[in-house]
Protein: 4-aminobutyrate--2-oxoglutarate transaminase
Amino acid sequence: MTAGNEQLMELRNKHVPAGVALLSPAFIAKAQGAIMTDVEGRELIDFAGGIGVNNVGHSHPKVVKAIQEQAEKFIHTCFHVAPYQGYIELAQRLNELAPGNSPKQTMLANSGAEAVENAIKIARYVTKRPGVISLENGFHGRTLLTMTLTSKVKPYKYGFGPFAPESYRIPSAYCYRCPYGESYPSCGCACAHKLDEFFTGYVAAEQTAAIIIEPIQGEGGFVTPPKEYFEIVQGICKKHGILLIIDEIQSGMGRTGKLFAIDHWGIEPDLITTAKSLAGGMPLSAITGRAEIMSQPHPGGLGGTYGGNPLSCAAALAVLDIFLNDGLLDQSVKLGEKLQQRFDDMQKKYEIIGEVRGKGPMLALELVRDRNTKAPAGDLAKKLVKLCYDKGLVILSCGALGNVVRLLMPLVITDEQLDRGMAILEESLAEVNAEI
Structure:
């Protein structure tokens, strides 16, 4: 007899630590496309996508087939011990797809945090410098180094110190709540230029190996920099010999209508980290960078037992085929246009929406109690998530103030599923809007 949600929750509370939090009381039995079905048969429209992992949808047939075919051949050999073609083929394709014309190389790992750790290892090795700069509102993982780079204290860092040394943080390009009290564009993109001043009072440029930035901050609230931001930051980095690492773990793999979100800004980073939707739900991450950088660490200095697992590589190759050959990137662009129009209309109707931001279908709503004071409505964002869940829609809140609702639905979502989900979201928005 299959256990129900309540029984499974009792077992979860007994056998799994409370620190492994759950955002939903529903235990999933199956999922396809943009629909999840729990163990009691209730369907949920998925606007969370496994926190940005299911861009090609749950159990995409081509991904499932690729995994099955590879599993019949072999599951693991360890690429260091007995290499295989899938790893090389995936690295080659990522090198060819990465922004810019410079020759690239790619190493594969297991998770986003592991990708970030390796990118920083490489940057420190190449520059012979210890310092790393990250941004306020940034999120880069939960391991010691990546937790240190992550901005938000609770729940990610609280009680888990001491943290890794030589980590520094600068304000992000949060135009809606400018840390310098300026307004864009009259500010002249001050947040980017302030990086040069940072080297005077916090860490010397000559001691800085890299700066790591998400093109659109995920957990930080989908903060989206102005069009000139990255060009300015990259210019400062080049002037001082600092490597620019772009963290595409949540924003990459078609989430913004482009394979890599940084393509919206038209720059070529030194290093790029990808994970989440890269392998359609399988654990896999990649560090792709300019070959002159990636080739420098000595043999044995990079890698790991499971990095570039054969099943995950097969899944990732199928994911890239889906994007590039099956038109999913075009579908992402169209989805983004639909969502932008719907949210712009909602913003006109509901005072609680202070800002709509993001790119393509990677969009978020910042909820406020007053548009003039921008007082955050974190409690109402939490209530909105609960209201939507009760009506059959899964969404996520985020942001340093907990007042942002982010949308990460699978890009394969049907028009009917999208309309149902948006109707639930708007109905629930109307309810919380009445409370401000």
